[in-house]
Amino acid sequence: MRTIPYSRQRIDEDDIEAVVRVLRSDWLTQGPDIEAFEQAVADYCSAAHAVAAASATACLHIGCVALGINERSLVWTSPLSFVASANCARYCGAEVDFVDIDMSMAALAAKLEDANRMPDLVIPVHYAGRACDREALLGLKARYGFKVMEDAAHALGAAYADGGPIGSNGGADAVVFSFHPVKPVTTGEGGVIVTHDVEMAARLRCLRSHGITRDAAQLEAKDMPAWYYEQQELGYHYRITDLQAALGVSQMAKLDHFITARRAAAARYAEGLEGLPLRLPPPDGHCGWHLYAVQVEEDAALSRDMLFEALRGRGIGVNVHYIPIHLQPYYRAFGFAPGAFPQAEAFYARCLSLPVYPSLSETDQDIVIAALRELLKAKG
Length: 380
Ligand SMILES: *Cc1c(COP(=O)(O)O)cnc(C)c1O
Known about the structure:
The strands form 3 sheets. The protein has a 7-stranded mixed beta sheet with strand order 1-7-6-5-4-2-3, sandwiched between helices. About 35% of the residues lie in helices and about 10% in strands. The chain is globular and about 75 Å long. Helix 2 packs parallel to helix 8 (about 240-250) and helix 3 (about 55-65) crosses helix 7. It is α/β, with parallel strands linked by helices and about 375 residues long. The protein contains 13 helices and 12 strands. The structure holds pyridoxal-5'-phosphate. Pyridoxal-5'-phosphate binds next to helix 3 and helix 4. The site of pyridoxal-5'-phosphate has 14 residues, from helix 3 and helix 4.
């Protein structure tokens, strides 16, 4: 049976040629394509500095380190996210707490108001490629003094409410993008962290490669020969390869095109699913539609789990995003229990991500819509 996945990469001949060119070149890694990729991302989102690494998770980790997160720190993120949004803080030994649901700014403001311990870092997540309220977030940042690292793994190519591209946020300390194959554009595996702070960018480059620097301006020893380098702190091997970076440059040129296709698919779902017992995501001209997550209403003929099984049985690759992070056994061991973040849990109980990706054909999308209409028609 042919299956329609919930997401997939789109690779064209020119992407393949870009990778093959690197294979024939002198540099498979630590070569010129990495800088070109970083420049392409920085240019796209009007960020001063971009540092590419092995994954968004790696970027979130070195972002936390560069922002001074340690065993004494407290980090807040959204429970409605992939575990990496919280794990990055745990890598540094920090305590993690969550803000219900996908961190609405009202919920964040209320939690800050009540808190007897301020977070050192807040990691908002632009769930599905829909920007959180940047103005409100930066207002709270200014008032309470925490740092901000946006988890924009879903949101490359999307925009804030004022139309500025995600990542153009001079008010945030860092913004992180993912290049996993289901994300807006891909490098196979890969991540980019952008920042407006030149010193932070240098530190991130150092952390991505063992804590080693060769930059004469940064070396402790002066007038050393060209082979000299210094390890100045404990870093990691989180580098990306030139093969991946070349694919990234090629893909970045298509990002707008991909987002346009995702927006068209979202608009077709909004029209095609009208009248069904599904709560649809609200329209948003700035959203990048990394996910199209509907919520199955309580009075629907099938529960979310039944609908999931029925659609999967027809080869339609629906999915669930996300099991709230605090319900994972690893986080429950810190004392989080069901009921801790009721809005995220309620969303999780009913949500279903429908297929959405740039190469999703109208014919395939119509199969998805028709299946939903048929399965849900006996309402009540
Ligand atoms: C995919 C994802 C990540 C991790 O991205 P990788 O590149 O796979 O490390 C982090 N946060 C969110 C919200 C994600 O969806």
